[in-house]
Design brief:
456 residues; alpha+beta; four-stranded mixed β-sheet; four-stranded antiparallel β-sheet; elongated
């Protein structure tokens, strides 16, 4: 299975799991307060948000008062709670007097918990996943002190910002950088960076629209830990294959100059576009030099091995990861802290997006962007780590005070609890319809943004 399909599979499994858990949160509190749930669906059995267009399911089964099913439109999922203005827009039911088992008959605090149920479960899910990750795998980080030769700049944008190969990054926004893992997350909010270069500290300022430049850049990785250029695969009928270069060869030199790291190798090829040069490789411990043509785009037709996780990175770069093990009971509070920190990071990203000066809004993406954050090889620790983060993202997104989202219902319920006045059901129908249409427009826009990125 190719890397693309592995990513798609991971994204589909993670999203399906989180949808079921989110809707299960609503279902749990609804049943707790003896509220009838008429439908529980993974994906929509209609063309969201228009409940009367193409209404059919791929599978369904009635059990008790609830119809469980899988819809055909994979945009989310829903539970249809009796007596509630929701995606189904069941106006006939709402026109009748309230029944004791309906949502609208329940006390405001009960309705509030029913609407917060999905968000609560999303947060609890992330907390449990993070706790179990720490318990099973522990916490692995790469200390900056291990990078004796500093970082390598992996893209021209890094050089443009002021970084150089061999820089030892010391501080971001005046805060000492202890771990390499924190470099890029802190860079998103960075105003200035301090590096040690040739034994001297140098501080330079980043542009306000740094995130915009990062979004517009095809390569989102600005830095890398120096590691060997190991060949993962060779493309048939390309110069490397014709020269006899093979998979698992390790690049040593290009045109007689040392190129022992991946970035040194790539940069060396760019200097010799359209020429034929000697390339030295190590094969099973034996040094071999072959002459190969370099194409006009600075490639020779090979795929280089990239580390998929921290363990591979440490092995390839010959550095020592700092590993912290947790007992089961230690993992529980640590998992809670980890979830809290991730929520803080996500809210920080929201702040960037809503600040036009940063240009971060250009990086907002849809399903394809979410698919890309999964590795191209199935790695369970990475899968669960990303799933937990998406779970928190869904919780934050659903808490936004937009009619049609959980946060919209929460906003109106809190208003009722504070003022003692319940919003008119006709008003709720109108604002929910408007909210659902706006959500559809937003989803179309962010997914269209993903498509447009392929043409840039």
């Amino acid at each position: 299975m190719s890397g693309l399909w592995v990513q798609i599979a991971q994204f589909f499994v993670a999203l399906s799991l989180l949808i079921v858990l989110h809707e299960g949160g609503h279902f749990f509190f609804a049943r707790l307060f003896k509220t009838r749930v008429e439908k529980f669906y993974l994906f929509f059995d209609f063309l969201f948000p228009f409940s009367n267009i193409l209404p059919f399911s791929l599978w369904k089964k009635k059990k008790g008062d609830t119809e469980y099913g899988i819809g055909w439109f994979p945009l989310g999922g829903y539970v249809k709670i009796a007596g509630m203005v929701d995606e189904s827009m069941d106006k006939e039911q709402l026109a009748k007097p309230p029944e004791p088992w309906e949502f609208r008959s329940k006390k405001p605090w009960q309705r509030l918990l029913i609407m917060l149920g999905g968000i609560i479960i999303n947060i609890l899910t992330a907390f449990v996943i993070y706790a179990m990750i720490l318990f099973v795998w522990g916490e692995k980080k790469l200390p900056m002190a291990e990078l004796k030769s500093g970082i390598e700049v992996a893209d021209s944008l890094g050089y443009k910002l002021g970084f150089k190969d061999g820089d030892q990054v010391k501080k971001v926004n005046g805060e000492t950088l202890v771990y390499y893992n924190d470099l890029m997350p802190k860079m998103l909010y960075a105003q200035n960076v301090t590096v040690t270069r040739n034994g001297k500290d140098t501080t330079f300022t980043l542009p306000v629209n740094f995130v915009e430049q990062l979004v517009d850049n095809k390569n989102k990785t600005l830095f890398t830990v120096p590691f060997p250029a190991v060949i993962r695969g060779v493309t048939k009928d390309k110069p490397a294959a014709q020269a006899g270069i093979m998979a698992k060869d390790v690049i040593v030199a290009v045109n007689g100059q040392p190129a022992s790291t991946l970035m040194q190798f790539k940069n060396a090829l760019l200097l010799h576009k359209g020429t034929t040069i000697p390339v030295s490789v190590s094969r099973n411990g034996t040094l071999t030099t072959v002459n190969t043509a370099v194409l006009e785009d600075g490639t020779i037709g090979i795929e280089l091995k990239l580390p998929e996780n921290n363990d591979e990175l440490a092995e390839m770069a010959k550095v020592n990861m700092e590993v912290k093990k947790y007992t089961f009971f230690q993992a529980i509070p640590a998992g809670m802290t980890m979830a809290k920190d991730k929520i803080g990071q996500y809210l920080g990203q929201f702040k960037l997006i809503f600040n036009p000066k940063t240009g971060a809004y250009k990086g907002v993406g849809g399903f394809d962007s979410m698919r890309k954050i999964f590795p191209e090889e199935w790695h369970w620790q990475s899968f669960w780590n990303i799933t937990a983060f998406i779970s928190l993202a869904l919780a934050v997104m659903n808490l936004l005070p937009i009619p049609g989202l959980d946060g919209g219902y929460v906003m109106f319920t809190l208003w009722e609890m504070i003022t003692g006045r319940k919003p008119n059901e006709k008003f709720m129908e109108i604002v929910t319809t408007i909210g659902l249409v706006l959500l559809l427009i937003l989803m179309v826009a962010v997914n269209a943004n993903d498509i447009l990125k392929y043409f840039k």
